[in-house]
From TrEMBL:
Protein name: Iron ABC transporter ATP-binding protein FetA
InterPro entries in the cross-refs: AAA+_ATPase (IPR003593), ABC_transporter-like_ATP-bd (IPR003439), P-loop_NTPase (IPR027417)
Keywords annotated in UniProt: ATP-binding, Cell inner membrane, Cell membrane, Membrane, Nucleotide-binding
A Pfam entry, by short name: ABC_tran
Domain of life of the source: Bacteria
Lineage: Bacteria, Pseudomonadati, Pseudomonadota, Betaproteobacteria, Burkholderiales
Record GO terms (molecular function): ATP binding; ATP hydrolysis activity
ABC transporter domain span: 20-243
Transmembrane region(s): none
Length: 243
């Protein structure tokens, strides 16, 4: 039986184009065969801001990584703008659907070196790093204008996550998949992350989509317009919508 998660009841969402659609996706533990994500249908429309909550080990990260096509699916498929994502189109899909992990992986060097790195990849050929824009994003997160010159090895946990988020936001993805990006961060750093994401979404709210995995119900209420829950690999609607 497939677990179907209905789309938002708000009419403007129903009339919005689909960005990402999961059709019967399944993930199993490759070692034990245990089902980590039960067969799930899911749709993210342009303009959607969703939060996914649930206990640890419920499958929240598994679901997000499956949507990002970072792990192989055991069944089902992912569609992008109504078209199935094929192997040859995965790089383009990942360019538009960006996954931000809980613990960022940074390169040696400065913050700017880390921000410049994506532009060395084939997927971003023809685009250039914009230091002015990156500096503005850093300042929006409460960091001084010389933040880009700091060594990555000297960053706090919050600063490392801000760097990782700016690295993604400067590339203008259409969808953000945020896997507990503020877990273990101090309140000030968490607020900076929320502000950056809100600015990104609001700039083109009718065209973008957001899924934020959080263990904090209060944060889920702040960052999302609708809440889903994950329990034992089953995705479903929260009992009450986020206000």
């Amino acid at each position: 039986m497939t677990n179907r998660v209905p789309r938002s009841s708000k009419s403007r969402r129903l009339n919005s184009p689909l960005l990402v659609e999961a059709q019967g996706i399944v993930r199993r533990d490759p070692r034990t065969g245990t089902t980590l994500l039960a067969a799930t249908d899911f749709a993210l429309a342009a303009g959607d801001r969703l939060a996914v909550t649930g206990p640890s080990g419920a499958g929240k990260s598994v679901f997000l990584r499956a949507l990002a096509l970072l792990d192989p699916l055991d069944a089902g498929r992912i569609a992008w703008h109504g078209r199935p994502v094929e192997r040859r189109t995965i790089p383009r899909y990942r360019k538009n659907v960006a996954y931000v992990r809980q613990r960022p992986a940074l390169l040696d060097g400065t913050v700017e070196d880390n921000l410049r790195y994506p532009f060395s990849l084939h997927a971003y050929r023809g685009t250039r790093f914009n230091r002015t824009r990156a500096t503005r994003l850093a300042e929006r997160a409460g960091r001084a204008s010389d933040f880009l010159d700091k060594r990555a090895s000297e960053l706090s946990g919050g600063e490392a996550q801000i760097t990782a988020l700016i690295r993604v936001l400067q590339l203008d993805p259409e969808v953000l998949l945020l896997d507990e990006p503020t877990a273990s961060l101090d309140p000030q750093s968490a607020q900076a992350i929320e502000a950056l994401v809100a600015d990104w979404f609001d700039a083109r709210a009718a065209e973008r989509g957001l899924i934020w995995v959080s263990h904090d119900p209060a944060q889920a209420a702040r960052v999302a317009a609708r809440q889903l829950t994950m329990r034992a690999g089953q995705l479903g609607l929260a009992e009450e919508p986020v206000q």
